[in-house]
Amino acid sequence: PNALLLLDIDNEQVCLEVSRILVEQELVVKSLGQTFGLPNYIQGYSVLGDGSLTLAIDPIELLARVRTSTAQPQIPTAQPALASTTQPALAPASDSSLPNEVADTINQINNRNATPGRQLQVLVVDDSLVQRQSLARSLTKAGCQVIQASHGREGILRLQEHPRIRLVVCDIEMPQMNGFEFLSYCRQDPKLSQIPIVMLTTRGGQKHRDLAMTLGAKNYLTKPQSDRDLLDIVAQLAQPSEVGV
Predict the structure, then answer these.
(1) What backbone torsions phi and psi does residue 157 show, to the nearest 5 degrees?
(2) What are phi and psi of 198, to 5 degrees?
(3) Over 90: is that where the pLDDT of 78 sits?
(4) How far apart are the C-alpha atoms of 66 and 52, rounded to whole Å?
(5) What would the mean pLDDT of 20-34 be, rounded to a whole number?
(6) Separation of alpha carbons 72 and 116, rounded Å
(7) Least buried of 122, 207, 219, 235, by fewest C-beta within 10 Å?
(8) What is the CB neighbour count within 10 angstroms for residue 56?
(9) What is the pLDDT of residues 143-174, one digit of tens each?
(10) What is the C-alpha to C-alpha distance for residues 135 and 131, in angstroms, rounded to an integer?
(11) Among candidates 162, 151, 87, which has minimal Cα distance to 125?
């Protein structure tokens, strides 16, 4: 028989059947943003000690979903929600149309170069694999070519390898080289100093924002961000007045 979790929800005891109980531990739950069309009982994701990813489920919302979807009371079964570190098993949301003015602007930038396959190149620097892939999906849908890096040092290598990168979206808290160090390096390098850098981070305090702008960031967004806000900024900063395409 499968294991049961006994939950006390609003003074009501409910048994949640699970395939097995692995371990009890405290985890930092990170947001999946708004790109993935996931049910509301999935709160986010966390990275386990072995590097694998797991989804965080809210049992209260899960139970509410079951009760509203069927007239017959059932005990929901929760399978382990693990995803590979190379290919997270997450169901993407159905594509929604982009704001016309944003899509048109990016298309105009891409059309300036008639060579096939030379879309606007954007570098995404973030130590979270899920966050990078979420951003890559949004930017690719908008017509950009996305290059990824897991920390600032790798981001510098990608900038050197891909001289056509026209914009960078960068996290702050990363190993080896954080976002502030990455900003400072790029500002001091004549070949990189003109590339617009947008900071995208969970740090929403004015202190972090002011430091980022002082170090040369062109804009500052906090997670979870909306696709509309991000793509508006990409379309604005990728104009030839900022960097030639």
Answers:
(1) -60, -40
(2) -110, 125
(3) no
(4) 28
(5) 72
(6) 56
(7) 207
(8) 16
(9) 888 999 999 999 999 999 999 999 999 999 99
(10) 6
(11) 151
